[in-house]
Amino acid sequence: MPALKIATFNINGIRSRIGALRHWLEREAPDVACLQELKTADEGFPARELREAGYGAIWHGQKSWNGVAILARGTEPVEVRRGLPGDPDDSHSRYLEAAVHGILVGCLYLPNGNPQPGPKFDYKLAWFARLIEHAQTLFDSGHPVVLAGDYNVVPTDEDIYNPRSWRKDALLQPESREAYARLLAQGWTDALRAHYGEARIYTFWDYFRQHWQTNSGLRIDHLLLSADLAPRLRDAGVDTWVRGEDHPSDHAPAWVVLNRPAARRKRAA
């Protein structure tokens, strides 16, 4: 049965890493790629270069910060929503939603929240609450949905090499983890954890203290599947080789492979 590969990648600056991005797209050929931290205004997005690589795209940029995009191989994603509902004054470019290849894809870049406590952590939790509310609407719609992105949450101590030195970080706070658990409780499947079970799998290695060289990683990039997509999960993984390239992002792409639904047989006349 044909399959569909959906990936998420915090590119950490798309203009400076467009070559690396194109290399990854050519080598791994995801059907859909959700990008975060574009760090460029809309007019700086490299649409032409991506089109040359075979990808249509929609994007929601922001100068120097944030920014999300959805790429689709061989087609154009159809934009459904730009920005989360619930706060018309929120100017951060952190959420984009599109219909592509028969699936509704939400691409998100959840706030980091550091330092905590403080206004940045308060914003993280408020944004998370808005995401949970919108996710419930998506889940209840009955459409096949993937919520993919950089959640900036380490769900459990099994998702980090050693939690001891990170205990005060916003990514590990009980409030952050509780919000993630509340999101999953709606019925979403954390695809990487479902595939790997209790095995350790990381998606982020910071630039300090030789964390990449010693595999001192964190799992903060997640792909959540709606109830009808979870049984279609065939494979999942992280393209760790990308993190080892020259001038890399501190994230590596995470991905899932989903079986496509079987074609319905036409009834005999």
UniProtKB/TrEMBL annotation:
Site feature Interaction with DNA substrate, where:
H251
Binding site residues for Mg(2+): N10, E37, D150, N152, D250, H251
Which metal ions or organic cofactors does this protein require, according to UniProt? Mn(2+); Mg(2+)
Q: Name one GO molecular function term.
A: endonuclease activity
Site positions for Transition state stabilizer, renumbered to this chain? N152
Going by the UniProt record, its keywords in alphabetical order are:
Hydrolase, Magnesium, Manganese, Metal-binding
Site entry: Important for catalytic activity: D221
Question: What Enzyme Commission number(s) appear in the record?
Answer: 3.1.11.2
* Record-annotated active site: Y109, D150 (proton donor/acceptor), H251 (proton acceptor)
Question: What does the cofactor section's free text say about binding?
Answer: Probably binds two magnesium or manganese ions per subunit.
Q: Which InterPro entries match?
A: AP_endonuc_1, AP_endonuclease_F1_CS, Endo/exonu/phosph_ase_sf, Endo/exonuclease/phosphatase, ExoIII-like
Top-level EC class = hydrolase
Which part of the chain is the Endonuclease/exonuclease/phosphatase domain? 7-251
What SUPFAM superfamilies does UniProt report for this protein, alphabetically?
DNase I-like
**Superkingdom of this protein's organism:** Bacteria
The family database entries (Gene3D superfamilies) matched by this protein are listed as: Endonuclease/exonuclease/phosphatase
A Gene Ontology BP annotation from the UniProt entry: DNA repair
The family note in this entry says: Belongs to the DNA repair enzymes AP/ExoA family.
Name the NCBIfam families for this protein: exoDNase_III (TIGR00195), xth (TIGR00633)
| Protein name from the UniProt record | Exodeoxyribonuclease III
